[in-house]
């Protein structure tokens, strides 16, 4: 891997023979666990300007129609999160000269609050080609991490590291874009979302002539990039307002009224699952259903394969293909082939359903076949969720082979998440594609499909639970680490499901110190499990007023979901308490409200008792209130599986109830308050551009 310094550049062809499609990754960490930023990509012409609105890719406009740019979203890492971007350089239009990769923070947050700011670029096999770390971030709320630019027929990378105190609006203005940052687009009920059910994109307008960044030279060669110094009175950055950029089809959240005479009538399904009887039937059907929809719905096929280095091109898929391997041919469950500019990208697919584990020997055979035949990847697909530092299968790579084969993994939960994001939130090209994805999603969610995602806490669950109950579980017991890994897989799946349903980013929060590895973090968590008998996790859902905490107490058999709501500095205590009761008008009566008093717990009670007397939640000694902790408790399922009475289902239900009945109401109340106070703070809102 080439480690870059600020201003340096390098040709991608010098680092890899297969850099036509790359994955750019932006990462950061936070010891507090609350760090976040949004990535963006701008396509620039030879004059250093965008050609129009479509050249700005952001969280609500994540993919180019030609497949050249696709924001793949965030994934958890050892110490924080990583935002990945697929860049198919062979598909970039000829009149695009540069691709600028940037990130921005909002709500007054600064990049100086984050650690380990870094950009890496990997080729389509997953091998990291270069890395660039930013160590001088301070008050900036937007950063250009790097750019890829043409030199003749070659693509090069330049490490930029230029920050902006004026946020995304200031950054974008330098490239000919006006960003409307008057807050997010909201639906009638105050919930942020796309307009009229269509896919939404950032509200951008091509501006008049603006000078390109003088600090980012157009010619190759090592350069030093000087950060701009905007005026000290620059306003705190806000997230840009979303608006509809182009017509896309999404399905309504509420299904149309059925024409059936009674509930016993079953709708005809394109992919029936009720007659599946064996694991083999489930694997064959699931593979065929998924691969056929990937080939017929370009947005979906591209969404799943872009992260694996596949180019944007014509896709064909196959099942039960016989391939020579020694004396006995092997039959991978599927083959994906993508053709672009006369070149083929090929991946073998190995599928498992119904909780069956992947087999190392089987995957190893496919890796060997792929290497001999010049294929690019092997993709495994199962209910398991992959974790860093804990591979699902162990394979060996022959270092003597020049051709590299990448091994990738997909969870069925991730497949369902991507389908739901497209048909509910981002949109697809036409109604037929939306219907196909809906049929796929219905199949995956059918109880007989075997494609339900992570659904078993593993063989160590019962002995660990019994060991905690009997106080016989010792520190260093490897079974405790296995339970912690299963817990982490479950939490990641919960995030995928919530994110797909809400259309918002949802990630587990990692509170780790610099240099902490995934293995050491899990070992520490396992130690706390042995000592305290509790599993704990935190979720950050975009748009929520705080971090959601989940604690599973194996000693008491209780699940606790909670969120902490800070009190504004200088606010009157009784006013804050009354305001909280109004915000929780529709929350469950058994919600526990606990006052936080300068780092310790204060008075507490259920919402039912506190509603008529909000003052009862105030400390009698007049101590300063810093916030409130809101909690719901639920009995924990005991069994390790995904049955109605199982642990996994109880965690799902607890998070769903807490988010829908508490967090969502708080978020709506907060948005209503911001709208009401907006004219007082800054005058009437600026109208959105035409089409918003």
Describe the structure.
There is one protein chain. The protein is of the alpha+beta class and 692 residues long. It contains twelve helices and 28 strands. It has helices spanning 167-173, 279-296, 298-305, 360-373, 412-426, 431-445, 461-470, 478-502, 518-532, 573-583, 607-610, 647-682; strands at 2-4, 9-11, 21-29, 38-44, 56-57, 69-76, 80-88, 98-104, 115-122, 128-134, 142-151, 154-164, 177-179, 201-202, 204-206, 242-243, 314-319, 334-340, 343-351, 377-382, 406-411, 506-508, 534-541, 548-553, 558-566, 592-597, 600-606, 625-635. The strands form six sheets. A seven-stranded antiparallel sheet has the order 22-23-24-25-28-26-27. It has a six-stranded mixed sheet with strand order 1-10-9-3-7-6, with no helix packed on it. The protein has a six-stranded antiparallel sheet with strand order 2-12-11-8-4-5, covered by helices on one side. A hairpin with a 6-residue loop joins strand 23 (534-541) and strand 24 (548-553). Helix 8 packs across helix 9. The model is unreliable at 182-237, 241-245 and 680-692 (pLDDT under 50).
